[in-house]
Amino acid sequence: MRVYFQKAGRLLSLALLLIAAGCSKSPFGNSDIASAPSVISGQIALNSADDPAGVYVWLEGTALSTRTDAMGEYQFSLPASGNGLFNNIDGSFRLWFYVANYRLASAEVLIRDGQFVFSRGDVDAKGHLLRPHTLLKTLAIETAVSPAAVPSDYSGLISVDVALWALGDSVTVLFPKVVSGGFGALLLHHLDSDSVFVQNPNIDAQSKLVAKVGEDRRHWEMVFRIEPGMLPTGKYEIIPFLLIQQEDLPPELIRSLGEHVEEFGASYLKIPFKRSGGLFEIQLAN
Who contacts 32 (Cβ-Cβ below 8 Å, separation ≥6)? Predict the structure, then answer.
């Protein structure tokens, strides 16, 4: 993924890392419990019409993670038994399921000598999670773009409206960059090339806004200008730069997503969200 910055007013793997605190004292004793190959599987459902693909699955105390497929299914693997870093690890761990605008969920998994233990915790005798986990949506994020399509020789303004509303309890949202109380930072994800362009009217602005969002829709708007040749033709998703506060979110989970994921740039897209709208297209001029 490439990221492009332009000046103000213009368009701007997994190495294992064990954390001692993530593992508790061995609960196994010497009992003969069936251990199995170091793979477990499960399925995540969402309590909305959102696509269940891309839910982040992370094993606490490690840098091991995976994401769900189009059906919400996943397989989670431990390193091969020859990896000495993991061979002597025993304990109970949480397997976390994360989407930024959904409530966190987790399951208990047990590990002995570097392998998952079946028929214990939330894992059945065949290595499947005992039940599908359903994540509950906490915040809706809807982006409207006008005009939604322009020719490649277009010179003018693009208006972006971001609507947020909570589904249940209020949600605390952080806007790391704002301009005069309005929305101040957007990412333009070029879907054809996976490149990312960033739009920030004042790239040096440090203003922040913390908003409590309830069930009533709240709107933030931003307008920016494009000129011919500033962006390649093709389809884009316009993404608002915002962060959602979750009090029970383990800091290590965010760190496991990679460096700079909470900063303004392409790495931000590693944080899993479920959004609607935001499509924009630059069409080849006749």
Answer: none
Q: How far apart are the first and last CA of the chain?
A: 30
**Token pair for residue 12?**
């701007």
Helices (H), 148-281: 251-256
Q: Out of 7-21, 128-142, 202-216, 218-232, which region has the weakest mean confidence (pLDDT)?
A: 7-21
Tokens standing for 26? 């061995």
Angstrom distances, CA of residue 145 to CA of 93, 184, 215 = 43, 15, 23
pTM, two decimals, is: 0.86
Distance (Å) of CA 103 to CA 91, 190, 247: 26, 29, 11
Coil/strand/helix, residue 59: strand
Q: Which tens digit of pLDDT belongs to each residue from 256-279? A: 999 999 999 999 999 999 999 999
Domains of the chain (ranges, CATH numbers): 3-12+138-283 (2.60.40.3880), 20-135 (2.60.40.1120)
